[in-house]
């Protein structure tokens, strides 16, 4: 039987699952419509819907066009080819609950560079203008919504009939299986890892590609790029660059090592990341705010600092684990807990928990700079509209929920050792407050 990841009560789990399944797709369309056609104003969209009702909403939902499918197919095929063909170091993932160790090819940075250079090259040499992507964004999101849904159905069926490893199985409930996923490490053939594709090479890569797209669209529209757009684009690109630099580390995180490939993770990465995560840039295209050099630089520096701290938290934990605690943390020998646990096959193993450095401030301190960085790439939009800040609010809720899910999972994995960690490091996210 598969683990179902239900840390909330069954009723909350069902309610949140069904509402996410029902509301996320229309939300993506309303977000795009508001940003691109309603001046970023929620009340303008609300008035439109009040006046025109459900039919009005159906009318604004763009039908997926052949061009949209073509753009998605070319992008997906290109990214899949890079994932398969570019050289990279062999990297071992963490041991799975069933005792398997997934093997990856770490070629994320190369794929990232090739993608951005190709995209900018296509624009520079007049072969493909990224503005086309912005002009057809609604159709592209619509195609992504439906295409990704069917992709999740494929994952569900594959999990039943042809799982790639023993880290798979049904929890006995079709909605849960579809939502949380059937397989931890689904692959096509031996080498094509589906979660690396959906989460990293499609979703995160699309974030960088769309950030550039919005910038180029503003340039095409106005003949120049406002400093607010520049700050937003640079910060989002620094963040995504950091992600690919650290991609092999990401393969050790909850998304990959604990969450199965289902609607929650895969649809989220295929649709939610390209739409919601890029939305502050989408807003700025038609709102070229001028910040002035000094303010722009302050925001840029603050954002880069937050991205660096977030990276350093992840790096600190990973170096500590990789060296078995034989490293220095903030210039000193690390303080730690040796936590033993039993795998689902009954074996006893142990992990080290770091209790100094960033990980001694709070148990999930890395979420603080993550949320602040998102704030800094949004704040160039200033405060005329609420919607650009939706991503920051969503991220805050997501990470607070994730901290709880992770704490609950670690408590059941490490038992008294986790209790000891909580005594030593009593705050969950914000030191001294929460
Ligand atoms: P991680 O998976 O990297 O860290 C949590 C895991 O680390 C735990 O499950 C536990 O795993 C281990 N661990 C916990 N405490 C300690 C400790 N004290 N010492 C050593 N190991 C410990 O967290 P996330 O996946 O949540 O975050 C990774 C990165 O991704 C962060 O930078 C985060 O901000 C970012 N992120 C961004 C999101 C976005 O949408 N923008 C969403 C989610 C994350 P084990 O079982 O191995 O002990």
Automatic annotation (TrEMBL):
The chain crosses the membrane at residues 12-33, 109-128, 140-157, 196-216, 228-249, 261-279, 291-311. Its EC number is 1.3.1.21. It is an enzyme of class 1 (oxidoreductase). InterPro entries: ERG24_DHCR-like, Sterol_reductase_CS. Gene3D superfamilies: 1.20.120.1630. Its main location: endoplasmic reticulum. It is a multi-pass membrane protein. The keyword Transmembrane helix applies. Keywords: Cholesterol biosynthesis, Cholesterol metabolism, Endoplasmic reticulum, Lipid biosynthesis, Lipid metabolism, Membrane, NADP, Oxidoreductase, Steroid biosynthesis, Steroid metabolism, Sterol biosynthesis, Sterol metabolism, Transmembrane, Transmembrane helix. It holds the Pfam family ERG4_ERG24. It is found in: Endoplasmic reticulum membrane. Belongs to the ERG4/ERG24 family. PANTHER family: 7-DEHYDROCHOLESTEROL REDUCTASE, DELTA(14)-STEROL REDUCTASE. This is 7-dehydrocholesterol reductase.
């Amino acid at each position: 039987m598969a683990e179902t990841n239900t840390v909330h009560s069954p009723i909350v789990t069902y309610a949140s699952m069904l509402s996410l399944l029902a509301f996320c797709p229309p939300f993506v369309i309303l977000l795009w419509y508001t940003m691109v056609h309603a001046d970023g104003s929620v009340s303008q969209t609300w008035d439109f819907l009040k006046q025109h009702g459900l039919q009005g909403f159906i009318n604004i939902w763009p039908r997926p066009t052949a061009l949209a499918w073509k753009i998605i197919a070319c992008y997906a095929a290109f990214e899949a080819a890079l994932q398969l063909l570019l050289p990279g170091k062999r990297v071992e993932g963490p041991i799975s609950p069933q005792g398997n160790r997934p093997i990856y090819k770490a070629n994320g940075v190369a794929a990232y560079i090739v993608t951005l250079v190709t995209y900018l090259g296509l624009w520079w040499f007049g072969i493909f203008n990224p503005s086309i992507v912005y002009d057809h964004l609604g159709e592209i999101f619509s195609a992504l919504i439906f295409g990704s849904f069917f992709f999740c159905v494929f994952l569900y069926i594959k999990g039943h009939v042809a799982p790639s490893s023993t880290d798979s199985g049904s929890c006995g409930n079709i909605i849960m299986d579809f939502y949380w996923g059937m397989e931890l490490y689904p692959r096509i053939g031996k080498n094509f890892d589906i979660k690396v594709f959906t989460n990293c090479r499609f979703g995160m890569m699309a974030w960088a590609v769309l950030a550039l797209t919005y910038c180029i669209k503003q340039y095409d529209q106005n003949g120049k790029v406002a400093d607010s757009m520049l700050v937003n684009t640079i910060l989002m690109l620094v963040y995504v660059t950091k992600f690919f630099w650290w991609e092999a580390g990401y393969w050790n995180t909850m998304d990959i090592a604990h969450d199965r490939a289902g609607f929650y993770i895969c649809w989220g990465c295929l649709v939610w990341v390209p739409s919601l995560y890029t939305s502050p840039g989408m807003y700025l295209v038609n709102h070229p705010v001028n910040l002035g050099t000094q303010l722009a630089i302050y925001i840029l520096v603050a954002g880069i600092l937050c991205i660096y701290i977030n990276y350093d938290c992840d790096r600190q934990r990973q170096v500590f684990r990789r060296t078995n605690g034989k490293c220095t943390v903030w210039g000193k020998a690390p303080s730690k807990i040796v936590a033993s646990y039993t795998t689902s096959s009954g074996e006893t193993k142990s992990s080290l928990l770091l209790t100094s450095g960033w990980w001694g401030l709070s148990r999930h301190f890395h979420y603080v700079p993550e949320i602040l960085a998102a704030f800094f790439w949004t704040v160039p939009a200033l405060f005329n509209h609420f919607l650009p800040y939706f991503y920051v609010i969503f991220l805050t809720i997501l990470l607070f929920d994730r901290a709880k899910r992770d704490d609950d999972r670690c408590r059941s994995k490490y038992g008294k050792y986790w209790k000891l960690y909580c005594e030593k490091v009593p705050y969950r996210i914000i030191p001294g407050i929460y």
